[in-house]
Structure formats: C-alpha cells, structure tokens
Specification:
The protein is an alpha/beta fold and about 425 residues long. It has helices at about 25-30, 55-70, 90-100, 115-130, 145-155, 170-175, 175-195, 230-250, 275-280, 300-315, 330-345, 365-375, 380-400, and strands spanning about 80-85, 105-110, 135-140, 160-165, 200-210, 255-260, 265, 285-290, 295, 300, 320-325, 330, 350, 425-429. The protein has a domain at about 45-260 and about 300-330 and about 365-380: NAD(P)-binding Rossmann-like Domain (Rossmann fold, 3-Layer(aba) Sandwich).
Length: about 425
C-alpha cells in the first residue's frame, strides 16, 4: 500500500473519518502563522480552557508574546521512533504519522499491564496500514535494555523521537512504585542519553496531568508549581520533566513534554474508566463509582491528543512543557449519564469511597499549546463517548472481546510487575 506524503503538520480539525475529504486549501490555511481553526457541523470546539486568552490585558499580552516566539513547523519526511508504539496513544500516533507518509520505528516491550492481545491487535492494524517493512519497522524490547536500544539506534538512526512508553496508572503505582522508577525514570533517561549522542532533532515525551496533584486552581497551567505529587506515578512524570530540562541544558537536546489529560477513545486502555464503564454497562454489570460523583476530569479524545503530539513533533522547541486537554471538565455523575445514554442500558452502580492518590478534578489551561503549537481540541465529551461506544459495538466485541475483569489496575487482578532481567532483545514482530 502506497501512502502519498503530505506536509508534516496535522490538521486542526478532527482526524476522524468525517474529515477525510479536507481540501488542499484548508491545509494551506492551517499552515499559516496564525492558525485557522477548522470547524465542522459535528465538532463543537471546547473554548472554556482558552479563557486565559481574553480574561485580562496581562494574559492577552502574554499570549501575544508567546505567539511572537512560535516557531514554524518542520515540513517534509521524518523517520520517527515511537516508543510504546503498541499502546493506545503510541499506536494511534504511529498510525497518523504513517498516514501522512512518514517512516516509523516502533518499539514496545509488550508487558502484561493489560492483555497483550490488545497490543498485538494494534500492531496488526499498523502493519495492515503499511505493509512496507522499510517504512514501518517493529521491535519488541525494553527501552531500559542498553544493548538492545543501542543496536536499534545504530541501525535505524531515527532523527525524531516520540516517547510514549511508560508504566501508567496512579493506583498501581502506590502498590508497586519500583516498576515506575524503572520504566518511567530510567527508561526516559536512557532514551535521552541515546538521543543526544545520535543527534536527534526533537525529543517529545508523554508527561501527565497527574503532576498537578491536588491543585486548587480552576485551570491547571504549566506555570504552576508542581513540586508536590500525590502518587509515585505523578512523581515519576515530574522527575522526567526535570531530567528533560537537564539534557536540554547540558547537550542542547530539543525536548518537549506533553501533560496529557485523561485520554480516551477507540482502542483505549481497558483499565481506564471510559472503557470500563462502556464495557460493563453494555454487559449489564455493576460499575463502581468512587466518591459522590462530583469529581471531575478533563477527558480528552484520542484524535485531539494525537493532533497535539504530532504538532509537538513537528516543532522542535528547545525546551517546553505543554498541557494537552479539552479545556473543560466532566463530572463523574455526568460521565455515567452520558455512557448510559449512548449504550442504551440502565447503569447499575455501587458507591465506593474515594481512592488514595486520586485528585478531585482536572482541567487544562491549553492557551500555551494553542499559542505555540496551534493546538485546540475539537471533540466534545458526549461525541467522543458516542464514537467510542460505536467502536466497542462494531469492532471490539467482534474482534477482541477480552473481559476487563482479567486486566490490571484494580479490576480483579494485581498490577503486573516488570521482569527487568527478562526483556526481549531485538525480536522483530
């Protein structure tokens, strides 16, 4: 299958099927220094998180100053190393890069934090998109394995790194903090060490909104002090941000950290609430509601997150941290009601106490990402859940159908532990 190469920057509109017929004129408009915000009848942009652009003269001046320092995107072919490329965000990003004509090198250790069959299905999807093994190369291995990763860099010579590999989950990190130090802190450090030695042009990595801890601000801003993480997972992500600045300072490595706000959507992780609720309600099973339902999250659809990731890859800032979110929150009670509406079945729920390490709410201030990346989320939560339910019913139940009760992170099984000494060395998938 041949993929025509397009300009190396994503469209601000949704990446879904509804936008597959975008014209060349639209792409040209979006590539202008001041981004044109694409709108379709099906996607109503969430503007709440952009209030910082107009709330005061001072904030408007800050926004104008940032835009004046925005850099132009790198246009043209890229060879991108995507770590965690069999996972949710990693495989979705790899698919976008392949679709626009880039070459992708995927590496994933295929751990059993959740069922590896889901990750295998993601890799099959990528291979079906791109049978050309020169343009899509897939490796199985641990990013902490020094011999394996050195050999990979020497052979593939990627000039762009999209580091999505990480051990995820707040609650499991409390049970087993050591694996988070290994996978997240050691793994990221190892990749940055290789990246500066091999002259990588841009290193983009996944951080998390968890670094904000129990912030009391209405919108979480990158300017906030985040020195008080409330879980080992959050602490590991904050540590990666600090190390990233160190590598930029010492070696002039271009580094961008992306603080994701609760990503969901088709092919999402089975330990996350959007998937769990859709699955259990569809099967007539009880769901657990932690707390009184007033907790709120800035749920961000996968297509919006991928658009932000690719925009960051294309813009090699010296060192920046960006929020990637929708810019508005959804309460747990409203979330459950929306799932009930789109699944079409009555929710059976059990009220549980609040969980240790959880934060009461998250909501991203995305004004910085708007100014410097041209990023803006386009998919409202109700529409995102509708699309996810449609995927669940049309694809997941037919092709995968793994019961989440067998998965990790508080769903009937203890979190998996890293077999540090057993990492596969360079096995091709």
């Amino acid at each position: 299958m041949k993929f025509p190469h397009t300009e190396s920057m994503p469209c601000l509109a949704s990446l879904g099927d509804d936008d597959s017929n975008s014209s060349g004129d639209e792409r040209t408009a979006i590539a202008s220094p001041t981004p044109t915000l694409s709108r379709t009848p099906h996607h109503v942009e969430s503007c709440v998180g952009l209030n910082a652009l107009v709330d005061s003269d001072d904030e408007s001046s800050q926004s104008s100053a940032r835009r004046a320092n925005a850099i132009e995107p790198h246009l043209g072919f890229k060879k991108v190393l995507v770590t965690g490329g069999a996972g949710f965000v990693g495989s979705s990003t790899a698919a976008h890069l392949l679709a626009r004509g880039d070459a992708v090198v995927v590496v994933d250790e295929m751990n059993d934090y959740y069922d590896v069959r889901i990750k295998e299905a993601n890799l099959r999807r990528l291979r079906a998109m791109c049978p050309d093994k020169k343009r899509l190369t897939i490796y199985k291995g641990d990013i902490c394995d020094e011999e394996f990763m050195l050999a990979l860099f020497e052979k593939e010579r990627p000039q762009w790194v999209c580091h999505m590999a990480a051990r995820a989950g707040v609650r499991p990190s409390i049970q087993d903090p050591y694996v988070y130090i290994h996978s997240n802190i050691r793994g990221t450090t190892h990749l940055m060490e290789l990246s500066h030695k091999f002259g990588v042009k841009n290193f983009v990595f996944a951080s998390s909104s968890s670094v904000y801890g129990g912030s009391k601000n209405t919108f979480f801003s990158e300017d906030e002090n985040v020195d008080n993480p409330v879980s080992p997972y959050a602490a590991s992500k904050k540590a990666c941000e600090l190390l990233a600045y160190t590598y930029h300072h010492l070696y002039k490595l271009n580094v961008t950290g992306l603080r994701f706000f609760t990503v969901y959507g088709p092919r999402g992780r089975p330990d996350m609430a959007p998937f769990k609720f859709i699955d259990r309600v569809s099967r007539g099973m009880e769901i657990q509601q932690f707390g009184d339902g007033s907790s709120s999250r800035d749920y961000t659809f996968i297509e919006d997150i991928v658009a932000g990731v690719v925009r960051a890859i294309d813009r090699p800032y010296s060192y920046e941290v960006f929020n990637l979110g929708k810019g508005s929150g959804t309460s747990l009670k409203e979330f459950i009601d929306i799932v009930e509406k789109h699944v079409g079945k009555k929710v059976i729920k059990k009220i549980m106490p609040d969980q240790p390490g959880d934060v009461p709410y998250t909501c991203a201030d995305v004004s910085k990402a708007y100014d410097l990346l041209g990023y803006r989320a386009t998919v409202p939560f109700d529409e995102g859940i509708r699309r996810t339910v449609r995927w669940y019913e049309s694809e997941y139940v037919k092709d995968i159908n793994i019961e989440p009760e067998t998965q990790a992170s508080g769903m009937g099984r203890a979190p998996s532990y890293a077999e540090i000494t057993m990492a596969a060395r360079g096995l091709r998938v």
